[in-house]
Amino acid sequence: MAVVDKDVAEKFLDSNPDFAKEYYDAKFRPKVISDLFKDNRTSQVNTSSFHELSMFEESEIIFDMVRDLQNNLQMEKAIFKFMKHLSFLIRADKMSLFMYRMRNGTAELATRLFNVHKDANLEECLVHPDNEIVFPLDIGILGHVATTKKTVNIPDVLQSIHYSDFVDEIQEYKTKCVLATPIMNGKDMVAVMMAVNKIGAPHFTTQDEETLKKYLNFANLILRVFHLSYLHNCEARRGQVLLWSASKVFEEMTDIERQFHKALYTIRDFLNCERYSVGLLDMTKTKVIFRNDAPLSCVPLPPYDGPKTPDGREINFYKVIDYILHGKEEIKVISNPPSDHWALFSGLPTYVAKEGLICNIMNAAQDDFFSFQKGPVDSSGWVIKNVLSLPIVNKKEEIVAVASFYNRKDGKPFDEQDETIMESLTQFLGWSVLNADTYDKWNKLENRKDIFQDMVLYHIKCRTDETQNVLVGKVTFSHGVGEEMPSYLIPGWQKLSEVLPSSETSELFEFHFCDFEHSHLDLVKLGIKMYYELGVVDKFHTLTRFCYSLSKGYRQITYHNWSHGFNVGQTMFTLLMTGDLKRYYTDLDAMAMVTAGLCHDIDHRGTNNLYQMKSGNPLAKLHGSSILERHHLETGKTLLRDPALNIYQNLSRSQHEHVIHLMDIAIIATDLALYFKKRTMFQKIVDQSKTYESWDEWTKYMRQETTRKEIVMAMMMTACDLSAIAKPWEIQSKVALSVAAEFWEQGDLERTVLEQQPIPMMDRTKAADLPKMQCGFIDFVCAFVYKEFSRFHEEITPMLERLLNNRKEWNALKEEHEAKLAALEAAKVTEEEVANATIAAKQGRTPTHADRQTGSQVHTQTGRQADRQSGTHADRQTGSQVHTQTGSQVHTQTGRQPHLGAWGTNHTKWKKTTNSIHLWGQAKSKRKTLRTDWSISETMNSSEA
Prior knowledge:
Helix content: 40-55%
Largest sheet: 6 strands, antiparallel
Radius of gyration: 47 Å
Strand order of the largest sheet: 3-2-1-6-5-4
Low-confidence stretches: 288-298, 473-495, 854-945
Number of strands: 14
Number of domains: 5
Mean pLDDT: 78
Distance between the termini: 112 Å
């Protein structure tokens, strides 16, 4: 094969470029590229002296940069090699890299690579944190570049207003010209790269700027990759810190010290420091001492003039916990540390506790503000280099401790990301204090509750002498006696029944039972008698003490007192026995239902649910709905939890759960809002009962389904709670006045305490409207339940009959009141017409149509005023529902007669009508008026606000 001359080959390739491209693409390109990326390949560019670079040499430099980026895992090493190449390309005498960072909230630039040139070594140019030069952004050309984020080319630094020569003085170097550019990550500043003193020329040229900007993409890429990698590692550390600290915080909820210790020790590997300490602050705000001359008197300490926390506490570290991670791991706990302890000697923890700021000391030895110990702090020879100190703040914004972290493991000072991680940790620890505080408060509240409950039971619980008032003179017993229970509390029921009042004489089985003639103690005895008549007395042996304590649990208020509670229980007893509703329930059920009736309003305050919410009563915060009903239920359960009062103590667990469940349903059912929801269901049960021909089959069917029995029981509670409306007129009229008096008392409270205008039903100035409100209350609340019960069991019909009779009485009073208002209106109209006629006569003319029109207007206006007085229009504004038992029987303990307005002060003076008015006919003929009236009555009797 003939040898081809080199010149001929070059000439052929130059004349055939397509062939040359195809040949090199097929033969040499993969190999060439592979050789370029070999790790052991040496650069083909001669950098010993500055010269113009060929395209091949420049490409070689670019591939060297890419290879360095691929192989170097350290940011400083990769950026150092880039700066060496760049200094050769632009012929810079020296280049430096300044990293942007935040220190205690202030931005600054710190040297990372300094005085890099084409022949430099990394060890010589890498700046140790102890020797770094820091530029604030308001000083020097570097600060100007970082602030404006623009490249600057200064031919003569002496002509620049931003030039600062303090670095030249330190280095004994003369800076003539500068080329500096910012390195950005999006809009965020990362670093500033600066080249000084152009070799072979007086200053850097425009071509140098273009070269710098072109190759700056490599620097951007290098810094961005390592910056994102660093951020990823920091976020991973932060997540681990929070995760592990959370797991330990919730393991320990009783003590703050143990909580902090567990969390901080668990996360020690993620904190990236050699040592850290936590100083716990005394949380006492005021202190007292005992004087020697007066040992029994406490006086305040002398005025304290030292540093204080933002909330005014003296800064006193009562304990320091020191975690040593360098060398052998160790934990030291120093109680009551002296002020010269190395962790407190510098004054940094005190300053952080005083100001509540995060402090990052990057060079402790050179810091002028704090006095850090210069030499080793202990025998291990460990020296403080840099410190990051943060306050631990709880949810109340009180500083509870100060955490200080010393010496980052890689030798660098703590940066902004370290501050973020440590701040997240201290913030979480501060919030976790809430767990310990809450647990401590919960324990205190539990203890306080037990104390208060014991105090309440002491005053409510039946005493021995009070029991003797019920069981006087009886010494014969048929049951065994327990140690804690005196023998006279457990007599045989035959002997005890001789002491109790007669059921026939007291009319205990009658729906028209009246408590007016019975004393407080008599009602207690009758309560016990009901349990005997139910046949359950042999099963419960603490009956006497329970009934007496129950009566003492009711407050001495106008209406919702023990008399009302007993009447509800007695009506429940009558419905079961006389009304024959007990056929659907067991003895245990009947016992729970009568007990619920007696307990249903215990500790009533004389105000409704809406008032509890408006006044901010703790009951409203404790119970979301049916506020008072749930309070009555819990109070009754509290009595039953006392062994001496628990009438269910001999029941099995399942039986006990059953009776408590029935009491829950029964007492909550006194909320009339629930009554309106259950009316349709009850009506369907009554309709279904009419489809059975045999009572036995119907009774068997009812007993099989718990839900049906509970619905009937709930309606029974409503019928009992409203039972006073179905008493004889002589009883019911008095009870209605007691109810009204209690509501007027609440209205007075709303006007004086809450400074609000009460609704008409609560306003004693609207007392004359009581008959009208009673009619509406009967029509739209009471009539349904008694009508349906009369259909359900004919034995309950007497209650409906008395309800209708009371409706006639109230309607007569209402009509009498309306007649008086009409007469007053007519008198006003007549007086106005006479006045107009007199005026016309004086003017010498006859009354005109305009005069008569004026009288008509007066008449119309007067009528509207009367309507407003009688509640026809104004009452429509009443939309809230207030719980009351207007129709329930009550005996007013105080004996006061409330004000009755225009229709007298004694029920015996009321005029009775002989006209027979049918209930439903009245409802149809005056539906609009009655619905307006009901808006008042609903407000008066519903328990939902």
